[in-house]
């Protein structure tokens, strides 16, 4: 009796699910795969969909033992779009929640395959993985039971390229100065870039009476969740590279060249679903021999260009 009770409890507490679930998206010629890096630094690949694309595929439920069975209250597949607040789960919201029933309540006694199809789904927001917020899309399979639901999520990526520049472009001109000590001008020919552009600029030294050790360019992302007084903003320095080493002299001109694609960037996002915004800034920094830092920051606008074959 004791042995039987022990086995029963062991089965209830330690045994894993009686089946595995696999989600496979239909292969479409020309469909791109995106490499996604999560906050822990791990990378994975997922298929890329555009706004309005059908999301179709197959689901395989594989029984792990030949004589096993799964009593269930129904099997369902869902397409979920969610904006997650990574600091406060209570502020997480679903903006898409579509579902299809695969099986009514019953018993699974053998491996099964199902097809799913969510046609012409509006996916107007891009996938995003930030410090405060994550916007993601996934297929969710649920085997409902009285206890211990069996679920499987399979993520996909959404990009929304556009045909035209969404912002008015204009040159960037900035000045950094300390009276009678330092006067520097930064100049960039543009302020709006697609994700494959090259940022070109120049730095002019009009007055140099302090000892500059080096100059660097930073790309900063500012992520804001919420609005008004409750808005929370976090900044992240995405890259830092040196564009000058050594002391400049008056009249010297230093060229700046930065390839946008060399850093994992997204388009500029403005008030997505009235929940969050993402902005990017160029930050030019001068460091003197006493490690004092002089900097100037300027916002740039990024957009995802629509490719000809799309």
From TrEMBL:
<comment type="similarity">
    <text>Belongs to the VPS26 family.</text>
</comment>
<keyword id="KW-0653">Protein transport</keyword>
<protein>
    <recommendedName>
        <fullName>Vacuolar protein sorting-associated protein 26</fullName>
    </recommendedName>
</protein>
<dbReference type="GO" id="GO:0030904">
    <property type="term" value="C:retromer complex"/>
</dbReference>
<dbReference type="InterPro" id="IPR028934">
    <property type="entry name" value="Vps26-related"/>
</dbReference>
<dbReference type="InterPro" id="IPR014752">
    <property type="entry name" value="Arrestin-like_C"/>
</dbReference>
<dbReference type="Pfam" id="PF03643">
    <property type="entry name" value="Vps26"/>
</dbReference>
<keyword id="KW-0813">Transport</keyword>
<dbReference type="GO" id="GO:0006886">
    <property type="term" value="P:intracellular protein transport"/>
</dbReference>
């Amino acid at each position: 009796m004791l042995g039987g009770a022990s086995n029963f409890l062991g089965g209830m507490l330690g045994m894993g699910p009686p089946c595995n679930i696999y989600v496979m998206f239909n292969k479409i010629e020309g469909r791109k795969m995106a490499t996604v890096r999560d906050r822990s630094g791990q990378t994975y690949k997922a298929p890329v969909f555009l706004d309005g694309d059908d999301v179709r595929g197959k689901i395989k439920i594989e029984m792990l033992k030949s004589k096993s069975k799964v009593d269930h209250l129904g099997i369902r597949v869902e397409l979920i779009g969610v904006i997650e607040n990574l600091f406060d789960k209570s502020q997480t919201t679903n903006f898409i929640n579509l579902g299809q029933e695969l099986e009514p309540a019953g018993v699974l006694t053998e491996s099964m395959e199902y097809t799913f199809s969510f046609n012409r789904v509006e996916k107007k927001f891009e996938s995003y993985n930030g410090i405060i917020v994550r916007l993601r899309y996934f297929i969710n399979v649920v085997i409902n039971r009285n206890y211990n639901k069996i679920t499987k999520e399979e993520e996909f990526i959404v990009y929304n390229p556009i045909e035209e520049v969404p912002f008015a472009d204009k040159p960037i001109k900035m000045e950094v100065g300390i009276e009678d000590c330092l006067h520097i001008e930064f100049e960039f020919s543009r302020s709006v870039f697609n994700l494959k552009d090259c940022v070109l600029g120049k730095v002019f030294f009009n007055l140099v009476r302090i000892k500059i050790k080096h100059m660097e360019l930073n790309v900063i992302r500012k992520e804001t969740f919420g609005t008004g007084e409750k808005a929370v903003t976090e900044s992240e320095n995405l890259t830092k590279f040196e564009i000058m080493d050594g002391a400049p002299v008056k009249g010297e001109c230093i060229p700046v060249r930065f390839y946008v694609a060399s850093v994992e960037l997204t388009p500029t996002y403005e008030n997505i679903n009235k929940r969050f915004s993402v902005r990017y800034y160029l930050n030019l920094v001068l460091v003197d021999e006493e490690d004092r830092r002089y900097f100037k920051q300027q916002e740039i606008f990024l957009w995802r260009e629509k490719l000809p074959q799309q």
